[in-house]
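Support reply, case 0932

Customer input (verbatim):
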Amino acid sequence: MAGRFVISEDGQGGFRFALVANNGQTLAVGEGYPTKVACVNGIETVRRNAVDAVIEDPSGQEL
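Our regenerated output:
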């Protein structure tokens, strides 16, 4: 099973999402959104753009 997106209220009347791995580790957290619909749109944007995303590393350090 793939990871999952978890939507939560942020305590200020807005919403945030977290991308959570199968082992429960939070991999990424989205910005605050004013509505749940906007939050879901943020999730969809991540889904569309992350599929072919490249890694950029301006540090110049090798792995």
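We compared this against your earlier run and they match. Two observations from our side: The chain has a mean pLDDT of 92. The helical segments are 36-50. Please reopen the case if you see a mismatch on your end.
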